[in-house]
Amino acid sequence: MRERILEILQDQRPDVDFENETELVSGKILESFDIVSIVSELDDEFDIEITPKDLKAENFDSLEALENLIERLSEE
Amino acid sequence: MEKNVLEWLEKISRIHPDKIVYEDSSDKVTFYQAISEARRIGSRLIENVKDKAPIAVMLGRNVHTITSYLGVIYSGHVYAPIDAALPEDRVNKILDALKPAAILTDEESYETASVYGKAIGCDVFKREELNQGITLWPAINSIRKNMVDTDPLYIIFTSGSSGRPKGVITSHHSLMCYISAYTGVMNIGIHDKLGCQSPLDYIAAIRDIYVPLKTGASTYLLPKEYFMQPDELFDLMNKQEITAIGWSTSALTVLTQLGAFSDTRLNTLNKICFSGSVMPGKVLRKWQENLTDAMFVNQYGPTEATASCTYYRVDHVVEENEVIPIGIPYDNYKVFLLKEDNTEAADGEEGEICVAGPCLALGYYRDVERTEASFVRNPLVDTYYERMYRTGDIGRYNKDGLLEFHGRRDRQVKHMGHRVELDEIELAAGLAEGAGECAALYNAEKEALWLFYDGDIEKKDLVMTLRKELPGFMVPRKIKKLEKLPKLPNGKIDMSSLKELAGVK
Q1: What is the CATH number that goes with domain B412-501?
Q2: How far is A37 from chain B (nearest CA, A)?
Q3: Cβ pairs bridging A and B (under 8 Å)
Q4: Buried (b) or exposed (e) across A32-70, using 16+ Cβ within 10 A?
């Protein structure tokens, strides 16, 4: 799963080091329209629905956080 | 009649000295604090900067950035906001056009700013250090006495198709005309609280900066990263009791795409102006359904006409596929349509949207050539010289007498509220080592910039080059390498087959 998430992220922003970055949202690295694309791709890829409740910096600041979010949403 | 925006500040701070004017997530200032800060900063600039050239301001998203702008105005200089986070090459191009007398920055951006200052040989000041000492009343008064209302207030840089940014110069008079017209249309008064979305160096922020000075309202600077977290943003807006916003259409769009309103409501907001690009009917409808008592206004206009030309007060709940008109001219604006042959378009005919009147910018800074190409004599008036601006936008009056927006004459697009010249993206991509031919286009429906290219360079390396040349929002997120760009029989790039690849309908 991690690989697939990374691929989606890197496709959107090849310039960002997603494996090490820990402030993707709070550090203003991702733009709001990056998040729109990433959310829609993750929704499709993992058959989940990311809603505003989940759109918090702590869920999007790192690859690991995103992985946890997707895992949680997949179980629901 | 007022000649200078500082007169607004002086008047309102006498009446409401202790009312909050600007607020951000960690700080706030009253009208009295704002004017005192501005006068101190202005006085120190008067002492330290003798050159009359503009002052470049590189500051972050906080209330003191605004008081610093006001301080520059007190010093008699023109302020030119520059985002210090822009790529180095971009900032260099702007500074080269501007040749500032000094750079005003803060502790946080000092290191970056001093590198630029050193390179162009100008002094760099920290606003924290300037915000000290006494007000030099005689100097401030004498500067004011010699000013006229057509003197420049600020210079804001926008994208230029040649890759050279254009510095649009706006006068006090133009700004005051727009703010007066806008507050009238939006019915903004002292009890309103504005929620600022725009970056402070960008044209759309002028409302959030100056409306409070005119009306006594206050402005809260909403953090940028909240615009990707709809619930957090709405909670904050409710807590701050935000009543009025003037946001980019794309900010409203992004929030709906992220599911805004599904579990958080907006309780205090009742005046919404949106501008910057075409508002999709389905997005507006979503906002209207969730804010049934609010007023919605569609604003249209370029930076060159002080960000404005026309407005449309939406008077019904729109359909999902409805095209929202850009409406009628603001008070004190003259807007008309010219056909290719320089005659006026009749009702129902398309023409280039042209604008005249006191809202017109003074031109592009240090750029007579491009100024003269865009700010021209109105061909409809042959008895005296009336200056007008050609927007490059195509419009048409509908049967109700409302102006509709019908696209561009050239390759400029609006992306996330910003102007983007597709030529400029191609130029920047062409600089990358190994890049062959490049073609940029825009999928407006998906709000995505695309770049197709051929040659021997990997996508990642190309993106790295683009990031060195262009602001982040201008870097295409959809980049596709092709064996060879498709060509038409005449040798030109076949844009229609590329559009198909990009899913443009």
Answers
A1: 3.30.300.30
A2: 9
A3: 72
A4: bbbbbbbbebbeeebebebbbebbbbebbbbbebbeebb
The residue of chain A nearest to residue B264, with distances taken between CA atoms, is A52
Distance CA B140, CA B295 (A): 41
In chain A, where the domains are located: 2-75
CA of B373, closest CA in chain A: separation in Å?
34
Residues in B touching A28 (Cβ below 8 Å): 224-225
What does the alpha-carbon distance between residue B271 and residue B332 come to, in Å, rounded to a whole number? 22
Nearest to B194 by CA among B416, B418, B24: B24
Inter-chain touch B230–A52, beta carbons under 8 Å: yes
**What is the value of pTM for the model shown?**
0.93
Q: How far is B487 from chain A (nearest CA, A)?
A: 27
Using CB atoms, which residue from B263, B472, B477 is nearest to A53?
B263
Q: How many angstroms separate the CA atoms of B113 and B47, rounded?
A: 21
Assigned CATH topology for domain B1-147: Rossmann fold (3.40.50)
Domain A2-75 has CATH 1.10.1200.10: yes
CATH topology for B328-408? Luciferase; domain 3 (2.30.38)
Task: Return the DSSP state at B344.
Answer: B
ipTM of the complex: 0.88
The answer to whether B502 touches B450, Cβ cutoff 8 Å, is yes
Q: Note whether B168 and B102 are within 8 A (CB).
A: no
Phi, psi at B311, each rounded to 5°: -145, 155
Residue numbers of B between 414 and 443 with CB closer than 8 Å to A: 416
**Is the Cβ pair A55, B459 closer than 8 Å?**
no
**CB < 8 Å to B224, chain A:** 28
- Window 193-252 of B: residues touching A by CB (8 A cutoff) are 224-225, 227-232, 250-251
Q: For each of chain B's 505 residues, which pLDDT tens digit applies?
A: 899 999 999 999 999 999 999 999 999 999 999 999 999 999 999 999 999 999 999 999 999 999 999 999 999 999 999 998 899 999 999 999 999 999 999 999 999 999 999 999 999 999 999 999 999 999 999 999 999 999 999 999 998 878 889 999 999 999 999 999 999 999 999 999 999 999 999 999 999 999 999 999 999 999 999 999 999 999 999 999 999 999 999 999 999 999 999 999 999 999 999 999 899 999 999 999 999 999 999 999 999 999 899 999 999 999 999 999 999 999 999 999 999 999 999 999 999 999 999 999 999 999 999 999 999 999 999 999 999 999 999 999 999 999 999 999 899 999 988 999 999 999 999 999 999 999 999 998 888 999 999 999 999 999 999 999 999 999 999 999 999 999 988 888 999 999 999 999 8
